[in-house]
Amino acid sequence: MSKEIVKHFNKLLTNELTSVRQYLLHSTVLKDNGINKLAEKMKNELNEELEHANKLAERILLLKGIPNFQDTNEISKYDGEFTKDTIQKILADNFKLEEKGLKDYKEAISVAEEEKDFVSVILLEELLKSEEEHLHWIEEQINLIELIGVVNYLKTQI
Ligand SMILES: [Fe+2]
Ligand SMILES: [Fe+2]
């Protein structure tokens, strides 16, 4: 078992658990403000992140490492005021989160490749693809808001 790859897996696990908390925050805030479709989408994202965390933890255990469920990174803050700008802040914060995720997945893939741990490579590539889709979806929403304006966008998400 390589300590180095387990270290990377645990870093990714921390990212995923952080994503779960952030998407849960956004899903509940959006739902409370009647933006139900977007709230539902955030809930789906959080379930996907949870599944990623699950797969990472399983692989860590298989590699005879210890999955770290203690740590988390800082998440997006909600100040209790839901305004037109809140939606852009949510998307921008999630963009940052996914961008960091992608970077760390790519790093972990290089380490797994160096160590010829090809099963880890396959798993990490699968998860990287999923994060790429998350990031792409966020980019689409940001572009849509720019095109049609935040009010029109929100009308499609209630
Ligand atoms: Fe994820
Ligand atoms: Fe993600």
From TrEMBL:
Organism, as annotated: Candidatus Wolbachia massiliensis
Chain ranges of the Ferritin-like diiron domain: 1-149
Annotated Gene Ontology cellular component terms: cytosol
Coiled coil: 36-63
Lineage: Bacteria, Pseudomonadati, Pseudomonadota, Alphaproteobacteria, Rickettsiales
Known cofactor(s): heme b
MF terms (GO), sorted A to Z: ferric iron binding; ferroxidase activity; heme binding
EC number: 1.16.3.1
Protein purpose: Iron-storage protein, whose ferroxidase center binds Fe(2+), oxidizes it using dioxygen to Fe(3+), and participates in the subsequent Fe(3+) oxide mineral core formation within the central cavity of the BFR protein shell.
Binding site for Fe cation 3: 48
Family: Belongs to the bacterioferritin family.
Entries under PROSITE patterns matching the protein: FERRITIN_LIKE (PS50905)
UniProt binding sites for Fe cation 1: 16, 49, 52, 131
Reactions accelerated catalytically: 4 Fe(2+) + O2 + 4 H(+) = 4 Fe(3+) + 2 H2O
Key word Heme present: yes
Record keyword Metal-binding present: yes
Keywords: Coiled coil, Heme, Iron, Iron storage, Metal-binding
Name of this chain's protein: Bacterioferritin
GO biological process per UniProt: intracellular iron ion homeostasis; iron ion transport
Annotated binding of Fe cation 2, by residue: 49, 98, 131, 134
Signal sequence range: none
